[in-house]
Amino acid sequence: DATVIDRIKEGTCIIPNLNILDEGTSHKINGVRLLGLGGDIVYDRLFDHGKAQGLVPGESGYIWSTMFQIVRLLQTARETFDKKETRIFCAYKSLGKEALIALLASHVNANFCVGGHVHAPYCATFTHWTTQDAASWGSWIETTITQVQDNWAQVQTDVEKCCSATVRESLESAMEVFQTVPSLDSMRALWGVVLCDLELGYAIANLKNHKLGLETISTGMRV
Question: What InterPro entries does its record include (predicted)?
Fold first, then answer.
């Protein structure tokens, strides 16, 4: 999988109407800014590129995200920030299932976060404010922050030996994200959209009169 994605990004493999959205790219469509982070979230591989030979980390049939991609995502988000835009952050996992995605969505100033879930028969929309209390949400985020900090402490010396001064500074800057829990305003304002499997349904975003609407289509589940 990593090899195929690398070829598409390099332009050696061209698929009509297919555009790659990753940590280093951002697209603007009628006032809507798209940001993305590809790959699974695996905490003990955040600092592991795997066996992939190209820029995309992973191994045969499996791609995951690394801290170096997160660094680039945060840079892209800062460089493209415009408070007049609506920002949609697209990720592999759902905002509701992965606290790291929720944390990053807050730091890239996303208004919406789109992710998927295997075998879900329906699309879903929610905010954490509507699904859990503030204490539970804060504890959930804190657990992820601690996990990332612990992993970084284990590999920091070895990783920094292999990096340039610029990369080390970028890593240190990115690790500042994993210091505090976002405000409750983020919990209230950030909307999650969970997509179902493609053969089961899809969601359509409609921008009209400065309002972003959402339609979800599903073939349904057997009853």
Answer: Metallo-depent_PP-like
